[in-house]
Specification:
Structural class: mainly beta
CATH topology of the largest domain: Leucine-rich repeat, LRR (right-handed beta-alpha superhelix)
Helix content: 10-25%
Shape: elongated
Largest sheet: 5 strands, mixed
Number of strands: 29
Strand order of the largest sheet: 1-2-6-8-10
Radius of gyration: 35 Å
Number of domains: 3
């Protein structure tokens, strides 16, 4: 009898310990989540925290790829161990389902694809401790519009933001050296601010074009003619101008339609500096193309600062006495002075006769040969910290010396 009683007591103790263990395990799980994240239903802001904490692909449950419902990822909320979700699991699920702003605190580690469940987040703020964006981090976050990166970011992983086609507000830190394959697949990156210097997109990725290496230009008073070398894997080139701290599209140049690698930027102001850039793209289209209707951009802009020429000078010349020619011209603004050039040929052989000070509008060229025909032209100049900015030469004027 005593032995039976001992067995019953021992069994009861074991049962009690088992119950307590289960309760404590459940409580520990929920306490862990309590430290792990906070969620405010009113602001729809979720904060993931915990130094040394790692967010994995299955941290907030796993969505089944076999769900057939239209909203399958919600209806088929699975868990790695196959267990039914607890009330606390459902709270976590609800937070993930509805959060629109996701803030990751310093010290939290992110694994590949770990934020894919956050289908409604519009803003993602990453911590300073994240220097490498894992592969597929936000794959499927198709409402994502804004990402704030850490200032020390060095790499953006493969397919990190694949399919995030609403992503517009992005500035890639200058520290980024590598953008891996399909990091922004199906995303229009034309307005993204990439650093001026970036190593390259993942080696061997033929989808991304090379960046333009050489650009040359000729500046006039109201237009700039620019040309560049062809870039490998580029189907076209976009020309930009920098205005109010943002790139503004000027035109697309598409060699497939007979356009060459050059463009004329017109309707510019004289004696004005402009920042102009060329950026190659690879536009893939066609129903048989696996990357249908997708554009891949070179990560960087090939920039140049161009100052347009001074306002054009209009001149006239005549000879009223032997061995002399009198030249006059219109006075233009912002000039430092003028130059008069003379030649015995209309299109070559010009030599500078002299320089003239600002606001001068006429001059006499002496010591010429009587009865001989000369050609004269005038240009203005402005002295700058970088040298001289000139106007176009006036049209050559034919004058016969008396």
């Amino acid at each position: 009898m005593k032995k039976l009683k001992s067995i019953i007591i021992f069994s009861a103790v074991l049962l009690t310990m088992a119950v307590l263990f289960c309760v404590s395990a459940s409580a520990a799980e929920w306490n862990e989540y309590g430290v792990f994240y906070t969620y405010d239903e009113d602001t729809e802001v979720m904060v993931i925290k915990g130094s040394g904490r790692t967010v994995r692909r299955h941290t907030f449950g796993e969505t089944s790829p076999y769900c057939s419902s239209e909203d399958g990822w919600c209806e088929c909320w699975d868990f790695p161990d196959g267990a039914d979700p607890t009330e606390n699991d459902l709270k976590a699920y609800n937070a993930v389902k509805n959060a629109k702003i996701l803030i990751i605190k310093d010290g939290v580690n992110l694994e590949s694809g770990s934020l894919g469940h956050f289908r409604k987040i519009e803003t993602l703020i990453l911590p300073e401790t994240i220097t490498v964006i894992p592969d597929g981090l936000c794959y499927g976050c198709d409402e994502l519009k804004t990402v704030v990166f850490s200032s020390g970011l060095t790499e953006i992983g493969r397919e990190a933001f694949s399919g995030c086609d609403k992503l517009t507000n992005i500035t890639i830190p200058k520290t980024v050296k590598t953008v891996k394959r399909d990091a922004f697949y199906a995303v229009d990156t034309s307005d993204f601010l990439f650093p001026d210097k970036i190593a390259k997109v993942e080696s061997g990725n033929s989808l991304y074009p090379e960046c333009v290496k050489n650009v040359s230009f000729t500046a006039h008073s109201d237009l700039v003619y620019i040309s560049w070398d062809e870039a490998k894997n580029a189907t076209g080139y976009r020309v930009f101008v920098r205005e109010n701290g943002k790139w503004k599209k000027l035109a697309d140049v598409d060699p497939r339609f007979g356009e060459k690698c050059h463009y004329t930027v017109s309707k510019l102001k004289s004696n004005t500096s402009y920042t102009i850039a060329v950026r190659p793209y690879n536009e893939l289209y066609g129903p048989n193309n696996p990357f249908y209707d997708t554009t891949y951009w070179c990560p960087t802009y090939k920039k140049m600062v161009i100052t347009t020429a001074l306002e054009d000078v209009t001149a006239k010349a005549s000879s009223s006495s032997s061995s002399k020619i009198k030249v006059s011209w219109n006075n233009i603004s912002a000039e430092t002075g003028y130059q008069v050039w003379i030649s015995e040929k209309q299109y070559s052989g010009y030599k500078k006769a002299s320089n003239y000070s600002a606001n001068t509008t006429s001059a006499t060229v002496k010591n010429l040969t009587s009865g001989k025909t000369y050609y004269v032209k005038v240009r203005a100049y402005k002295k700058t910290a970088d040298g001289y900015n000139y106007s176009e030469f006036s049209a050559p004027i034919k004058v016969k010396v008396k």
